[in-house]
Each structure stands twice: as C-alpha cells, then as structure tokens.
C-alpha cells in the first residue's frame, strides 16, 4: 500500500534486463554508443519529428533546468504555475542554470495555466523596459502537479499566447506518458503539433531506474544544449546505461503500457475511496496522481497497517478531515488498492 510517489516503485524487469545486457563488454562513452543512436531514431519516430535533437539526462531536475536554460537569458523570465515543480521543488535550479532568470508564477485551478492568466501576468511587464525582466519562456507541466492533464488543444492555446510575447514553450513531461495516455493522443499531438518547443519525456516515474529524454524540436538549439549539459556535469561517461533504459522503455511501447496501468490504478483507487464517508477530491484527477481528503480515523487505520502516502492539509474542511497525496504506479495492484480502501473505510 505504497502511494507516496511513483518514484518509490521498483524498476521494471525489462529495464533491469537492459541494464544487465548493457553491462556486458565495452562500448564507446559519452553518448556515442550505438544504443543512443537507436534511441534517437526511436524517439524521432515516436514523436514524428525526424529532425529533433534527443538527449538523455539522469534526473528530472537536470532536464527541467537545462531545457529552460537554452530558451531563457539571465535577464529574462520563465512564466510557470505557482505550484509547478520548477518553482516549488527544484531548489532554484532553473534560475541557477539560466544564470539568474526570474520565475514569474501564475495561479490557476488544478495547477493549470490559462491563456487569460498568461496575458494578464504578461501585461504587468513591459518588453523593452530596461528596469524589468524581459519575456523568456513559458513552462507547463503535464501531468500537472495536482493530477490534471492539459489536452493538446489547451496546450496549443497556451503556446499561441506565449508566442505573442516572443516566448518559447517548455513542457515538463516527468509524467508525460501518463498525460498522453489520459488524453488519448499521440506524443506529436501533445508536443510540437501543439506548439511546444522542447519537452522532457520522463522515464524515472514510469518504471525506469533514472533517465529522462530531453527532446528539442528545433535542432539549431542542439549544440547549446550539449555544451550546457557538459558544463553542468550531466553528460554521463557511461552513457550506455541511460540509453539502455530508454531502449527498454521504447521497445514495444512499454512506456505506454506502464502509464496505462498506473492511470487505471489511479481511477480504481478513486472509485474505491468514493465509498468512504467524508471522502472528496481536492483537485481533478485525470491520470495516476490525486489529492484527496477523508476523516482522520481512516488515516490512522491505514497508516497503522503500513500504508504510506504524503499528508496534505485538508481544504475547506473541519479539523478532523485530513488531506493526502496518493500516487499509483506501474506496479500498483488491485489487491493493495482494495486493502487500502477497506482500511480507510473502517
């Protein structure tokens, strides 16, 4: 009954097998291995982007910060949601890697930005005024930090709004596979066809040991990314172990199957908890991540029995209603969902 994070899940056996296979013998280093060439071809095919530049890093923080840095100068700004990972959970990495760019935060239900909110926030600043930060980049997250999913149409509306200010758009895709499955679209429809300039295609939260792909749809940005990745200390010498994981992830659409299971488990968990008196969702759940609340006694029973999840404040509720962040993953079973729901219900 581990619902703390999809980061806590085990590595999928296919990824472990790929790592073991990659450990046999010798191979070129620093991303020049054949496996990386194959990964690049596979991702270009998956995203229907034959000219895209593809790079691998080991952490989501590196993916976010490096991707934003190639589109944001030190005197520019990154527009993002006030709950976004780049703002709340990166210890200033986007600011550091960009040389000091300013994060400008926006509010919005379900951790989503609207074009109207973007226009309103941008209207507070004046391009060409030397006393103010200039427009740099828009950063979106899909799945959002509270569990909602932007549709391709919603992303397209936001990227169009960003372009009116000369801004590129970065899509933080730590859970991109879950978002694509939930939206029922293709990777291309959710990214470059919707106006996204650069995206991270996360694997760590979806069954891999630790690898994220950064996909640049403008190959002219490739050399700058390579230099920034090296300078930041994120160019792995034994790069084959990153490439091997991504190969396994892409083989036979494993990424899609794992995300579909996690999303289905999220829906199953929500349905199971709806029978609990006092249960409610704090935000909309579209994929494998939800924020919910229910009476304190249910929390006590579940945690005493060994359930693990993150406590959150209750919203608009009496003191005996406590919140929770619940995340399902590729390895979540119906049995543990049923056990957890029974304990919460009492």
Largest sheet: 7 strands, mixed
Alpha carbon gyration radius: 20 Å
- The helix-strand sequence is HHEHEHHEHEHEHHEEHHHEEHEEH
Mean pLDDT: 97
In terms of DSSP E residues, the strand content is 15-25%
Tally of DSSP β-strands: 11
Structural class: alpha/beta
Q: In which range does the helix fraction lie?
A: 25-40%
CATH superfamily of the largest domain: Type I PLP-dependent aspartate aminotransferase-like (Major domain)
Total helical segments: 14
Q: Which CATH class of the largest domain applies here? A: Alpha Beta
The CATH topology of the largest domain turns out to be Aspartate Aminotransferase, domain 2
CATH architecture grouping of the largest domain: 3-Layer(aba) Sandwich
Q: How far apart are the first and last residues' alpha carbons, in Å?
A: 16 Å
